[in-house]
Write a structure and sequence with these properties.
A hairpin with a 5-residue loop joins strand 6 and strand 7 (474-480). By secondary structure, the protein is α+β, with helices and mostly antiparallel strands. The chain starts with 5 loop residues before the first strand and ends with a strand. Helix 3 (74-90) runs parallel beside helix 6, helix 6 (138-156) packs antiparallel against helix 7 (160-175) and helix 8 (190-201) runs antiparallel to helix 9. The protein is built from 17 helices and 23 strands. Mean pLDDT is 94; it is low at 434-450. The relative contact order is 0.10. It has helices at residues 21-40, 52-59, 74-90, 94-110, 119-123, 138-156, 160-175, 190-201, 204-216, 223-231, 262-279, 282-298, 330-346, 350-364, 410-419, 422-425, 584-587, and strands at 6-7, 14-16, 382-383, 426-429, 455-458, 464-468, 474-480, 487-494, 498-506, 514-518, 521-522, 529-531, 534-542, 545-551, 555-558, 570-575, 578-583, 594-595, 602-609, 613-626, 638-648, 660-661, 664-665. The structure holds zinc ion. Zinc ion (ZN) binds next to helix 13 and helix 15.
Length: 667
């Protein structure tokens, strides 16, 4: 029977001190969060207007302005608050905390007597509350604010936002469910949020409400069709008849392919995996396995981007992965990180952590400019200025990161993920005495967690200090130059003289050769306890014990499945977890004329740039075809030798605007 193998660690238990990630965490705390705060308060003149905080002021009766923005504008404030909560665990900041508390007070004032909280419907259309779950995102906004409330409570110990959101969750619970009003959200999010709220409060009604929303999806009669018939008004020009768009084509336990809006899909699957672990639901776990497989083995870009079509921001069909008309929303890669993390909790298996790493180092990081002030919504693998962002089918593929968006879901999503990165790096096994909570409707006791764990999992290689309760208490210090260098050193310091526990470390799927040493002694590879891509080292650890891993990290040629039409005959370059790309800035224009010979030697070289900082570049001798005057010719084009300079994909688009491509024809 499926059950959680590990539980979430408190963010404060892993302090990141890492050459690669500390830069991003500092960027978010010092630059991105204050920048986004100014935008939410409409204090920056030359960016897309937000008005999100003003909307709360209007709903609270403190301003007589007009509501402005998307119907889900509240969620921008929620995600920002969640990021602030996590950032306070990295860097206490009493002034920021006070300003966030003031916003929380305002949110409380915008809450209605009956617990309802949503500024759009409070200000604009109070008579239409809860009538258009398909389009209007009330449950989505509630979910994000619940996540913020849980994060705020866990980071600061304060219940101010938690109290507000428990009232809203109670309001939702009073309305929706079996024997009450039927309903499911068009944009999933409330499901995963209610599970977090359940764990934060121990209130089983929130678990059962989450399960209701998950179980009800895809059942007959089709909720969205019924809703549309009954309400007779629309918000967007959409209707509820597309059963793929909101993953409504079958009950979730019968679903076998990832469909529709890719962010919605990821948020649903994340909740399904979480719920499967909470209630030990084998059929839900099996559905999650099928959906994970459908997502990452047939519909995912090399970068961990998902959703190949702008129409519906959605998945299309298997192996349809165009590089230039792609969607691959930053939020979708973030959602994939969430989904993979929850799957990992149920089974320590590198098929999940490898995907988490791929998305994180490529498709998520590419969403943010290196200075933290511009953001991509769409993350292409090929860009041609003049075509990208201009021609009708390419309009959405903007070659340069904008400062902000009218629909600003991605920027604060990056902030909250990067400030909570600790929770993705490490895991602790669940104690033997942990019990499953009762399924919906029964009267058993809630889960009880214990204070011991016998295995700690290192999922990502990030430098820092992890304080774990393993073996009665231990500190594990990690030092690494990852992702530039494949050496990782764990130094163990138990609280007592010796402590027995298992240190389980992922061996990445991209690695063909590695060495392991314990206290300087190289271990025989054949004697290693390797299971599902994790190396298990069980021993009685004493002060200063060192486990060192050394991953061979050559530049690799990576090929797509031949069923991916767009990558036929092409190769991509990777080193460690990083995908590389060619940019016009380093290689000149007309990148489609570049050919990489099969026998060309690929070298990794240290590089540095005033904008990009220090990084490892990939260089290779290649060919460049000379375009002739004729559109078609019996003569093959002439070729001349050229030297390619490839940069990590996450750094693209930071310098002058120009061409970019990941896949290169191989000859
Ligand atoms: Zn987004």
């Amino acid at each position: 029977m499926v059950k959680k193998q590990e539980h979430e660690i408190p963010l404060t238990s892993f302090r990141i001190e890492d050459d690669f990630w500390s830069y991003f965490q500092k960027l978010v705390t010092d630059v991105v969060i204050p920048y986004q705060e100014q935008i939410l308060n409409d204090e920056l003149p030359d960016v897309e207007k937000s008005h999100a905080i003003e909307n709360f002021r209007i709903a609270a009766g403190k301003s007589d302005g007009e509501y402005y923005g998307m119907v889900f504008q509240d969620s921008d404030v929620a995600k920002w608050l969640e990021a602030v909560a996590y950032s306070l665990t990295l860097n206490p900041n009493p002034e920021l905390e006070k300003r966030a508390d003031d916003i929380i007070e305002l949110i409380g004032q915008a809450q209605q007597e009956d617990g309802y909280l949503n500024t759009y419907f409070t200000v604009k259309e109070p008579e239409h509350r809860w009538q258009n779950l398909h389009d209007c995102h009330e449950l989505y906004c509630a979910g994000h604010m619940i996540e913020a409330a849980v994060a705020w409570y866990e980071s600061t110990g304060k219940t101010n936002l938690l109290d507000i959101m428990c009232r809203m969750a109670d309001h939702i619970d009073n309305r929706f469910g079996k024997g009450k009003v039927r309903g499911i959200p068009g944009h999933e999010e409330i499901e995963l949020a209610l599970l977090r709220l359940y764990r934060a409060t121990g209130e089983e009604r929130y678990l059962h409400l989450s399960q209701y929303f998950i179980d009800e999806r895809g059942t007959q009669p089709d909720y969205f069709e019924e809703e549309e018939k009954n309400r007779g008004w629309h918000f967007w020009s959409k209707d509820g008849s597309d059963k793929n768009y909101a993953q409504n084509y079958a009950p979730v336990r019968e679903q076998d392919h990832a469909t529709g809006h890719s962010v919605r899909a990821m948020y649903l699957y994340t909740a399904m995996a979480d719920l499967a672990g909470e209630i030990h639901d084998e059929s839900l776990w099996q559905a999650c396995l099928r959906l994970f497989d459908s997502t990452v083995n047939r519909q995912m870009y090399l970068t961990g981007g998902i959703g190949s079509s702008v129409h519906g921001e959605a998945f299309t069909v298997d192996y349809d992965l165009p590089n230039d008309t792609i969607y691959a929303e930053t939020c979708a890669s973030i959602g994939l990180v969430f989904f993979a993390r929850r799957m990992l909790e149920l089974k320590p298996d590198r098929r999940f952590s490898d995907v988490m790493e791929r998305a994180l180092y490529n498709g998520v990081l590419s969403g943010m400019q290196h200075d933290g002030k511009r953001f991509f919504y769409v993350n292409p693998l090929e860009v041609i200025p003049g075509l990208s962002g201009v021609q009708p089918e390419y309009k959405h593929v903007i070659p340069k990161r904008p400062k902000w968006y009218a629909c600003a879901c991605c920027p604060p999503n990056v902030s909250r993920l990067l400030t909570s990165l600790s929770a993705y790096a490490w895991g602790e096994s669940v104690g033997q005495n942990d019990k499953a909570p009762s399924p919906a409707g029964s009267e058993n006791e809630a889960a009880a967690s214990t204070d011991t764990c016998d295995t700690v999992y290192s999922h990502l290689y990030i430098g820092g200090t992890f304080t774990s309760k393993a073996g009665g208490g231990v500190t594990i210090r990690t030092e690494t130059g990852y992702p530039w260098d494949g050496a990782v050193c764990y130094t163990v310091t138990p609280d007592s003289a010796a402590s027995e526990f298992t240190l389980a470390v992922r061996i990445p799927g991209w690695c063909r050769d590695f060495l392991v040493s314990l206290n300087g002694q190289v271990l025989d590879t054949n004697s290693l306890d390797l299971r599902d891509g994790y190396l298990y080292v069980n021993r009685s650890w004493t002060n200063g014990d060192q486990l060192k891993l050394s991953f061979d990290m050559p530049v690799r040629r990576v090929y797509a499945n031949p069923l991916v039409r767009e990558d036929a005959g092409c190769v991509a370059l990777m080193r460690g977890p990083l995908v590389y790309c060619l940019e016009q800035e380093d290689n000149g224009p007309q990148l489609q004329t570049v050919r990489l010979p099969k026998d060309s030697i690929l070298t990794a070289e240290n590089a540095s740039d005033p904008v990009l900082g220090s990084y490892t570049a990939v260089r290779a001798t290649a060919l460049r075809l000379t375009p002739g005057d004729d559109l078609y010719s019996d003569e093959p084009p002439k070729a001349e030798e050229t030297v390619l300079h490839a940069v990590p994909y996450y750094l693209w688009g930071n310098r002058s605007e120009g061409e970019m491509r990941v896949w290169i024809p191989e000859v």
